[in-house]
Amino acid sequence: MKIRLLVLCIFPLAVYAGGNGYIKDFKSYRQDTSYFTRKVYTEHTWQTFFALPEVNRSIDPKSPDIHLLNACLFFAANQLREKQQLKPLAIDFTLRDAAAAHSFQMSSRHFFSHQNPYVPALKNPATRLELFQIDFDMQAENCHMRTLEEDEFTYKELARDIIQGFYNSKPHRENLLTPEFSYSSDAAAISKKGSNYLLYVTQNFYD
How far is CA 25 from the centre of its chain? Predict the structure, then answer.
């Protein structure tokens, strides 16, 4: 299994346009019938979320529940912040759309970077947040990529492994544990390249 991490640290900026067109082809993300798309975030803390039976399902990279994985990542990050006596981060679904646009771009074009060399409107984290009309004073981004085998992890195990990986890397940890951040979202995408399934994760923060 190969794992790669990318970090982009905090810097200030502002706002503008609209970017849902960049996720219209991300079919596994656009489906809105899953309980884990929105409702779970308002009905659970990390403690009650990780007691749900679904988090212990094995991940099939051929047909993953992207929204379940996104929720696992979000709650695993809040679990870690609580251990550090920091306030929990609130979900922002528009921020998650911006993260999904980047993960989908990386997975469909097979690149791994904070910089998108193909689409100028999505060229870096700040421009992506601006495109999705997110008003922020400060923002940061963590990215993760790995190969994924069938039944290698449960959803809970994979999410906690990714968040622990961020925590073990100083610049990623600084983003994850910045006290001033109020909002966060995580978005995963999986694609096949040759015989390998590749998982891409974008984690964004702002205040």
Answer: 18
- Count CB-CB contacts under 10 A for residue 150: 10
Which structure tokens are listed for 122?
Answer: 């999505």
Stretch 182-206: mean pLDDT = 97
Give phi and psi for 89, each to the nearest 5: -85, 145
pLDDT tens-digit map of 26-41: 999 998 789 999 999 9
CA distance 107 to 192: 8
* Ramachandran area for residue 194 (φ above 0: left; ψ -120 to 50: alpha; else beta): left
Nearest to 178 by CA among 129, 138, 124: 138
Give the torsion through C-alpha atoms of 27, 4, 56, 48, to 10 deg.
-90
Q: Is the dihedral of CA 101, 107, 111, 113 positive or negative?
A: positive
